[in-house]
């Protein structure tokens, strides 16, 4: 019985932490590590165009099967109007090697830069992400417009499509 109580407490504690970002406020600084030896950009370096951030994990079937292809499509269709980055988070703390990231980048034709979350999941927790994949959409000024967990094409990704169109329309 005690183990159920501790699990329930963890779930309740985690629920209170979700979506801690405030819509309409600037995105707090991120804590990321480079994977491929490149420099981690600042949030400010993305200002001027809307930015879509995708938290993902190579161990997440929804990320591999739906979210990475979705992010690729956004870059292909709207890359001149907005930027996309990925943040690889690993809240299971299994650790991924650079070779695995290189293989994934090639296998999934990832068209956007991605970085590793410091200490496996620091930014993930700081932004109150709900799991992987989790999306955060910023306007051209770096202000949070949307935060959403999921990859269901008829729910989460459809809602994200609509919100991206709104942000792009407002950016004209």
- Counting DSSP E segments of at least 2 residues, the number of strands comes to 6
State the CATH topology. Answer: Glutaredoxin
Q: Assess the beta-strand content as a share of residues.
A: 15-25%
CATH class: Alpha Beta
Give the terminus-to-terminus CA distance. 57 Å
Instruction: Report the uncertain regions.
Output: 1-16
Q: What's the CATH H-level homologous superfamily?
A: Glutaredoxin
Order of neighbouring strands in the sheet with most strands: 1-4-3-2-5-6
**Helix and strand pattern:** HEEHEHEHEEH
Topology, element by element:
Blueprint: H1 2-17, E1 32-33, E2 51-56, H2 61-78, E3 83-88, H3 98-107, E4 114-117, H4 122-126, E5 134-138, E6 144-149, H5 156-171
Parallel strand pairs: 2-3, 3-4
Antiparallel strand pairs: 1-4, 2-5, 5-6
């Amino acid at each position: 019985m005690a183990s159920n109580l501790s699990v329930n407490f963890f779930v309740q504690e985690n629920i209170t932490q979700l979506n801690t970002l405030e819509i309409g406020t600037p995105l707090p600084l991120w804590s990321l590590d480079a994977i491929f030896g490149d420099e981690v950009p600042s949030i400010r370096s993305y200002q001027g165009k809307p930015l879509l951030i995708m938290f993902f994990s190579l161990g997440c079937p929804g990320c591999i099967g739906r979210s990475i292809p979705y992010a690729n499509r956004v870059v292909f269709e709207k890359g001149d109007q907005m930027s996309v980055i990925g943040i690889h988070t690993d809240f299971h703390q299994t650790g991924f090697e650079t070779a695995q990231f290189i293989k994934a980048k090639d296998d999934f034709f990832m068209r956007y830069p991605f970085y590793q979350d410091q200490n496996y999941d620091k930014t993930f927790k700081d932004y109150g992400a709900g799991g992987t994949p989790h999306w955060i959409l910023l306007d051209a000024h770096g202000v949070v417009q949307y935060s959403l967990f999921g990859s269901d094409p008829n729910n989460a990704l459809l809602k994200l499509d609509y919100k991206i169109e709104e942000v792009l329309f407002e950016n004209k």
